[in-house]
Amino acid sequence: MRVEELLRKGAALLQAAGVFSPRVDAEVLLSFVLDCDRLALYREPEREVAPAEVGRFEKLLNRRAAGEPVAYLTGEKEFMGLKFRVTPAVLIPRPETELLVETAIALLQGVTAPVVVDVGTGSGAVAVSLALFLPAARVFAVDISAAALEVARENAARHQVAERITFSQGDLLTPFFKSGVTFDLIAANLPYVPSEEVATLSPEVRREPALALDGGLDGLALYRRLVLQAKGFLHAGGHLLMEIDPKQKEGALNLVPPPVWQAWVVKDLGGRDRLVVAQYRG
């Protein structure tokens, strides 16, 4: 069977299953099976695909039609222009979280040897990106999930920054309570979906770890605890970054009131309130 024919049939199957981006997903899955980039599919639309590869593609299509995320099927997701290993043990990195990384990099310009921690690191996408784009930084990464930390360590090794990131397992900043370490910046993309809304998420999103989605009654339960801890770890003038749902703006800002904090919200590329930036005034 030819490439173009497989793509056409694959996209039709996914569309019938109600998949949001059927053609793109079919292209990603076929390029994964053929070990090529998506452009190659257009360069060689008449290429004959071997029966074994057709079979692999069809199995992946059926799993995608059943609601399994593409990133879990391929085991990879791009973030900040980098490829990261992902498994069902971690939340799939989102494009909007790149705003957190970009803001952290901007805030730390001019800081000599900044010390940064990524709280709730998951796949390690934020921590690894910060280590790569801030080569003078000392980076810490913490997660409560041992399985997630395994993936994060793999990604750090993959991008050759493993020696510059200290990984710890634990709840928020508790692994550092007796360490004496302090931070210039705390980055957090914690679960922020209100508990009662988790069941209303798409079947695809519900395939991701509940531990990485459920943010308690109002979605801010973990951030509420993190803010209390952060005051004991931030240098005066240091920053706490928290990714939120746009409708949580006021609630999140109430967690970091003046005069202890000076806080503002940064919008994402879609113009939605996405990131709370809070500077600790001491």
UniProtKB/TrEMBL annotation:
Highest taxon of source: Bacteria
Any one GO molecular-function label of the UniProt entry: peptide chain release factor N(5)-glutamine methyltransferase activity
Entries under InterPro entries matching the protein: HemK-like, Methyltransf_25, N5-glutamine_MTase, PrmC_N, RF_methyltr_PrmC, SAM-dependent_MTases_sf
GO BP, sorted A to Z: methylation
Keywords from the named record: Methyltransferase, S-adenosyl-L-methionine, Transferase
EC number: 2.1.1.297
Domain Methyltransferase: 116-207
Domain Release factor glutamine methyltransferase N-terminal: 5-75
Catalytic activity: L-glutaminyl-[peptide chain release factor] + S-adenosyl-L-methionine = N(5)-methyl-L-glutaminyl-[peptide chain release factor] + S-adenosyl-L-homocysteine + H(+)
Glycoprotein is among the record's keywords: no
UniProt-annotated binding residues for S-adenosyl-L-methionine: G120, T121, G122, S123, G124, D143, N189
Keyword ATP-binding among record annotations: no
NCBIfam families in the cross-refs: hemK_fam, RF_mod_PrmC
HAMAP family registered for this protein in UniProt: RF_methyltr_PrmC
Record function comment: Methylates the class 1 translation termination release factors RF1/PrfA and RF2/PrfB on the glutamine residue of the universally conserved GGQ motif.
Family label: Belongs to the protein N5-glutamine methyltransferase family. PrmC subfamily.
The protein, known as: Release factor glutamine methyltransferase
